Amino acid sequence: MALDKPYKDIPGTTIFDSDQARLGYHVNQFCMTLMKPENRERFLENERAYLDEWPMSEAQKRAVLDRDYNALLKLGANVYYFGKLFFTDKISFEKGASLMAGMSQDDYREMMVSGGRSPDGNRFIGEKS
């Protein structure tokens, strides 16, 4: 029986819960292999071949190849796991997060330093303000 998940209707937000964890299990395990230098090297030599060693969906593999981090979130990847992909690509976590937010790294940093993004428009759709 599925649990009631009122957080499913927060605009622009994907909550990493048990359903997402199951969906993204293999993509997250793949990301963890990137902690080892030899695996990062092997991945970068032939990304598709390395991904094909994992029983991920084609959509998950495509999101990795395209570095579509927001799609990865929707497909069950956890940002703390796919942060290893940022490192593999020699970009900081801050830079990766700015790409996901569609902002320059400087604008993203300024937003975070000044208290983060506004909660306006990020409440449950059914919630009264």
Keyphrases for this structure?
129 residues, mainly alpha, 9 helices
Describe this structure in words.
With 129 residues, this protein is mainly α. The protein has a domain at 18-90: Protocatechuate 4,5-dioxygenase, Chain A. The protein is 56% helix and 0% strand. It has 9 helices and no strands. Helix 2 (25-33) runs parallel beside helix 7 and helix 8 crosses helix 9. The radius of gyration is 16 Å and the shape is flat. It starts with 17 loop residues before the first helix and ends in a 16-residue tail after the last helix.
Topology (SSEs and partners):
Elements: H1 18-23, H2 25-33, H3 37-45, H4 47-51, H5 58-66, H6 69-74, H7 79-88, H8 93-101, H9 105-113
Helix pairs in contact: 2-7, 8-9
